[in-house]
Amino acid sequence: MTVRQVLAEKGGEVVTLSPTSSLAEAAHMLAQRRIGAVVVSADGGRVDGILSERDIVRAIARDGASALDAPVEAWMTREVVTCAREVAIDDLMQTMTQGKFRHVPVVEDGRLVGIVSIGDVVKRRVAAIEAEAQMLKEYIAG
């Protein structure tokens, strides 16, 4: 299975936020949309960074509640690991595990086309394992 197949099932909508938005705005967006990270983009198409719940927690731990007034660009991860649609899910899962991050923007020709979370990856992997187990049961029984 590839990232293309995951995006076909879940859709390619990606939530983005301007680098000048505040951490409070970002936290509100994450809570409202029930997501764990937001792609930071000045133009809605290029990936300038990514901001996760962990980044917000780190900011508050260091600067207290006043951190929520800071711009997203002060706390975002600037060197974002991205992938293309043709990447295999198993390879992406390994990249996410090694890098200890849970969200990977999907980029083609320099433009944001989707995002994949560890939840998306695990969901598809579990479904594949269950399908394989069912086929084995049917083979053995049949």
UniProtKB/TrEMBL annotation:
**Which residues are in the CBS domain?**
8-66, 76-132
* Keywords assigned: CBS domain
Quote the Pfam families the UniProt record gives.
Answer: CBS
Is the Nucleotide-binding keyword given for this protein? no
SMART domains in the cross-refs: CBS
Matching InterPro entries: CBS_dom (IPR000644), CBS_dom_sf (IPR046342), CBSX3_CBS_dom (IPR044725), Diverse_CBS-Domain (IPR051257)
Q: Kindly give the Gene3D superfamilies that the UniProt entry links to this protein.
A: CBS-domain
Protein name as it appears in the record: Inosine-5-monophosphate dehydrogenase
Source organism (scientific name):
Salinarimonas ramus
From the broadest rank down, the organism's phylogenetic lineage runs: Bacteria, Pseudomonadati, Pseudomonadota, Alphaproteobacteria, Hyphomicrobiales
